[in-house]
Amino acid sequence: MKKNIFWSLLFCLLIGSELLTVQAVVRLNMLPVAYLIAVGAVLAGLTVAVGCLLFCGRRHRGKGRKVIACVLALVMILGCVGISTVAYDVRKTIAATSREEPEIMTREIFVLAENTVEQLQDTAGYTFGYIKNYDIACTQQVIDRIAQETEGTFATAGYTSLFYMVNALLDGRIDAMILNGGFAEILEETKEFFDFSTRTKILAQIPVDGPEIELQIEDVMPEMAEPEAVTAATEEASVETEPVPAETVESYSVMDPFLVYISGSDSHDKMLTSGRSDVNILAAVNPKTKQVLLINTPRDYYVSNSAGGGEKDKLTHCGLYGINCSMTTLGNLYSEEIAYYVQLNFTGFKKLIDAMGGITVYSDYAFTAIQRTDIREGENQLTGQQALDFARERKTLAGGDNDRGKHQMQVIEAVIRKATSGTTIISNYSDIMASIEGMFTMNIPAEMISSLVKMQLSDMSRWNIVAYSATGSNSFEKCYSLPDMDLAVIIPYNTSVSKATRLIDMVFAGEMLTEEVINSMT
After folding, report:
1. Three-state DSSP class for 207?
2. pTM of the model
3. Vertex 322, ends 402 and 287: CA angle to 5°?
4. C-alpha distances in Å from residue 350, one per residue of 2, 159, 326, 440, 501
5. What percent of the chain is helix, strand and coil (3-state, nearest 5)?
6. Per-residue pLDDT tens for 118-177?
7. Is 516 exposed, middle or buried (0-12, 13-18, 19+ CB in 10 A)?
8. Which of 112, 194, 387, 419 has its CA 20 to 30 A from that of 464?
């Protein structure tokens, strides 16, 4: 009977070791070779030791030894199962956030809130409004879908102005309108349509293929205009290039530098797949030199919208046309190819910060964020909510949106530092894994993440993280996404854009940057 128990324990120990090997070593694939050898040697040695204690030696002298062996076997089994569970959770989280499939985009059909129609099929005889000469390819896809659902029994009305079309819907001159749903938020920022969401509803969401967007690297001239000489009429030279081939994203070496676009909203509870991006940060990463350069581009930067044929628009509006539009727009601005993105739910970011035990940020001055969080001059220990307030505030700051962008980079930098130092991840593992779920999506391959983790575990070196913010001058200009009125924008300083490009190139070339080096550059 005892021998059966002993054999069962040994069998369970072997199964646990196998489970650990499969989950933590093979499938997770994040441990360096040295770690694998050490883990294998320890497992093999302890398993042999347990077997010897259980089955070797004289029967009448081995009672205490067998008890020790049983306890050791149970501890090892539980340890193997526990570590395998952790490895499985990590692998599942990475798989859930690494999005290989194309981004899903939609266009919405709006009707009045009191409209009783519930399905697109029931709109036979309706007149659908649309904006002429705008978002043409996506609009046509929606019209084709309407034709299919109503068997062609509908009419269309084209408008040259978004405002005209919205008024036509509200006044009952059309029955429905085709629009990018993200425009609802823009409309509600105007006095005329502040109640747009309460007066209308979305009848249907139609999946569409996004607009054709090509990377057109722009020439950054050696002699840039001084800030005071830049005007809204400044034109940026550009040359057309072939689109970046899809395989570029997948071909990489763990030591190759790369650019990541960090996109997100600072004011919504749900992840935006196709909406305005209030957080626009480029991270230039050089794994070989362990350096990260964070570049903030203000949300109101007046840039060439890559989905609008190069027409000028606010950077934040580019997110309405999909994350690829924002990436290529920034790529054109800085003359760089951006292969990867991380789309961040900034509101959900506070859960991660709380799970990590808070973060430390430095402020150059004292202020009150979002009318509730007091930030003092110097170092501040912040909870998740306080960090979010710190990253969202802009109205009371002298630098407005520029300062908000700097604070967002400080929060991201503080999280990176906290996550890569000490035992933060190990001691707060469960809470951190729970907080990550639904917080972001990305197109960084899981294999690339595994390789980077392996590299970090091999040397445990500290990363050098520096930041820079692009600047410009305030103005009011017409925008591609809302041409009916002049909007507040930031006209880029060419010198600032050029400096950002040079800094990225320096990181890629392996040069070490410091705040002093960045500040000394012109």
Report:
1. strand
2. 0.76
3. 65
4. 53, 42, 24, 13, 31
5. 45, 20, 35
6. 999 999 999 999 999 888 889 999 999 999 999 888 999 999 989 999 999 999 999 999
7. exposed
8. 387
